[in-house]
Amino acid sequence: MHRDLEKVLFQEAEIFARLDVLAKEITHDYQGLDLTVIAILNGSLIFMADLLRRIPLPLQLDCLRVRSYYGGTVTSGRVEFDLSALPDLKERHVLLLDDILDSGHTLAAIITALQEKQTPLSVRSCVLLRKRRQRERAVNVDYVGFDIEDEFVVGYGLDYEEGYRNLPLIGVLRSQ
Length: 176
Ligand code: IMP
Ligand code: MG
Fold this sequence. Notes:
The protein is of the alpha/beta class and 176 residues long. The chain has a single domain (13-150), classed as Rossmann fold (3-Layer(aba) Sandwich), CATH 3.40.50.2020. It is 22% helix and 35% strand. Helix 2 (45-52) links the parallel strand 2 and strand 3 (60-65). It is globular, with a radius of gyration of 16 Å. Residues 43, 68, 75, 98-106, 152-154, 158-159 line the site of inosinic acid (IMP). Magnesium ion binds at residues 43, 159.
């Protein structure tokens, strides 16, 4: 185990087994629909790459770079992104992919802005992890990999100050 981790929550094999199930559900739900997946960067990169290769649908992929401002491991609630880089989504069903649902600020802000500015046929969201906690903004996510306790986790795309994204597992960071 990496020395900065207090414990490992999910090894790669367990993540992959869960992705197999999630991918089947998504493939079933979007059969015959014009699907655009929007991956929220940087956190969902690795999740996106492994999930989408399990979905045999003719989908389109775009990315949205989002900055949510953190003071250490706690969100400030400030979220910044630029929807103008995305293509026209009016005739598309959108599935947002994010690494983790924590306070809810990030997904809530993106879903609201997309619905107002782009009016896609539908907007759903999929997160690899969802923390068990009271959310500052209510968000209804449609697909969830794992529910976890309210602890700061890293690995498999998730960072602490931009480190640890390339760990092939998800673990709880040791208190500094
Ligand atoms: P929210 O806006 O508070 O829901 O947080 C969403 C974003 O915060 C995620 O996309 C992550 O980038 C980051 N985040 C929240 N919790 C964690 C964590 O435990 N580890 C690493 N990043 C996190
Ligand atoms: Mg982050």
